[in-house]
Design a protein that fits this description.
Elements: E1 2-3, E2 8-12, E3 21-25, H1 27-39, E4 44-49, E5 54-56, E6 60-63, E7 70-75, E8 78-80, E9 95-100, E10 105-108, E11 112-114, H2 118-123, E12 132-137, E13 142-145, E14 148-150, E15 157-160, E16 163-168, E17 171-173, E18 184-187, E19 190-195, E20 198-200, E21 206-208, E22 212-218, E23 221-222, E24 228-233, E25 239-248, E26 251-253, E27 259-263, E28 268-284, E29 288-291, E30 309-322, E31 326-331, E32 338-350, E33 358-362, E34 364-372
Parallel strand pairs: 2-4, 3-5, 4-7, 5-8, 6-9, 7-10, 8-11, 9-12, 10-13, 11-14, 12-15, 13-16, 14-17, 15-18, 16-19, 17-20, 18-21, 19-22, 20-23, 21-24, 22-25, 23-26, 24-27, 25-28, 26-28, 27-29, 28-30, 29-31, 30-32, 31-33, 32-34
Antiparallel strand pairs: 1-2
Length: 380
């Protein structure tokens, strides 16, 4: 332990027994260092993961509340997950690294968080049976910055029940073929800002789920992946509430979707006041898509009487190229429909020379202002 000035205290994990050779299990050493950090009464308590070392961690929970109003988890080296499925025996397999009830938490640095998820992708097909890499629950005033996260077994970052979250300059990378490896999943959270990140994975770059409001996403480069999605919402008849979402100045490059809203039939609630603006699309499928018939592939998506109500949805300032014949697809619920949709200054052409892209709608209501392709199917 070293004191850095009057109000900051630094706790190096190697001072608590961490070896950092990529072979030794350093989980207990990290827990000892974390307990010291959480007990510290300085204004800023810093857990330091030094450069030039690789620390192997089994599933670990970094719990609060902590005494210090500001807790800094500074990653300079590499933190790596278990290499074998057998190393997970006796542990919670829902997540690898978990932060809970830690207010004023900053996790940053120029280090690497490596989920080593390939062992899961090959042997565990059900994504629910795989752990997410880094989860944050009930952590208010949370900041994430600078890190590279790779190869999570499932989602790389999950934000749940948090408020006042800032995420900047992250790199999140997994193979396009690694199913369900979302970049950032957000649920039941508010006042979240995501800026200037690169995300290329095997699923949604960012997914905004029920219980979210006031989410701002700016300057994200997404691809490969499934785009930036609101949802899925309303599964198994669930009630959803999502509002005040803004996604702008983002790029979708080679993604399966661009700006997407997806809901299940049979749900209820609402998703409203959602804006996608100033978006660049490069050789992407489904650049603009509302899918209220979302379901597991291979199953029939039957229309039901109830659905999540979508309203106040704006797509503005899109430009680029589509690999889909339908560059704009607004498939709204036949029973509930989407209202107050705005398409404004859209210019999406085919990625295939000489082809013409189209639009399609189901029960979609709103306005189309200067869009290519024209959305003739949009009703007043």
């Amino acid at each position: 332990m070293a004191t850095l000035g009057y109000s900051q205290t630094n706790f190096d994990v190697t001072s608590y027994g961490a070896v950092g050779d990529g072979i030794t299990d350093d989980s207990q050493a990290f827990m000892k260092a974390w307990m010291a950090v959480c007990r510290a009464r300085s204004n800023m308590a810093v857990l330091y993961v030094p450069r030039g070392k690789k620390f192997l961690l089994k599933p670990s929970q970094f719990g609060g509340p902590c005494n210090s109003p500001n807790v800094h988890f500074l990653v300079g080296g590499e933190i790596a997950g278990p290499k074998k499925l057998s190393d997970w025996r006796g542990h919670d397999v829902s997540r690898w690294l978990s932060f809970r009830d830690v207010n004023g938490l900053t996790v940053d640095g120029d280090g690497l968080i490596n989920g080593q998820g390939a062992i899961w992708w090959k042997s565990v097909g059900d994504a629910k049976a795989r752990p997410l890499a880094v989860g944050f629950s009930s952590c208010n005033n949370l900041k994430l910055s600078g890190l590279t996260l790779i190869n999570s077994p499932r989602s790389h970052i999950a934000i749940n029940s948090c408020t006042k979250v800032t995420i900047t300059n992250l790199r999140i990378i997994a193979p396009e073929t690694s199913h369900n490896t979302d970049g950032i999943d957000i649920s039941s959270s508010s006042n979240v800002q995501i800026q200037d990140c690169y995300i290329g994975t095997g699923d949604d770059c960012i997914a905004i789920n029920s219980g979210c409001n006031n989410i701002s996403i700016t300057g994200v480069v997404c691809g490969p992946g499934h785009g930036i999605s609101v949802g899925s919402l309303g599964k198994d008849g669930a009630q959803a509430e999502v509002e005040d979402i803004r996604v702008e100045h983002c790029t979708f490059n080679g993604t399966q979707n661009g700006a997407r809203i997806k809901t299940w039939q049979g749900g209820s609630g609402f998703a409203r006041k959602i804006v996608f603006a100033n978006i660049t699309v490069i050789n992407a499928y489904n650049p603009i898509i509302i899918d209220q018939y979302y379901c597991l592939s291979g199953k029939t998506c039957q229309s039901q009487k109830s659905a999540v109500k979508l309203s106040g949805i704006s797509f503005m300032g899109f430009r680029g190229t589509s690999l889909s014949d339908d560059a704009i697809n607004l498939s709204c619920s036949k029973s509930v429909g989407c209202t107050n949709i705005l398409l404004d200054h859209i210019n999406i052409t085919s990625a295939v020379r000489g082809k013409i892209v189209h639009s399609s709608c189901i029960n979609a209501h709103g306005r189309d202002i200067d869009s290519i392709p024209k959305v003739y199917c949009l009703s007043p």
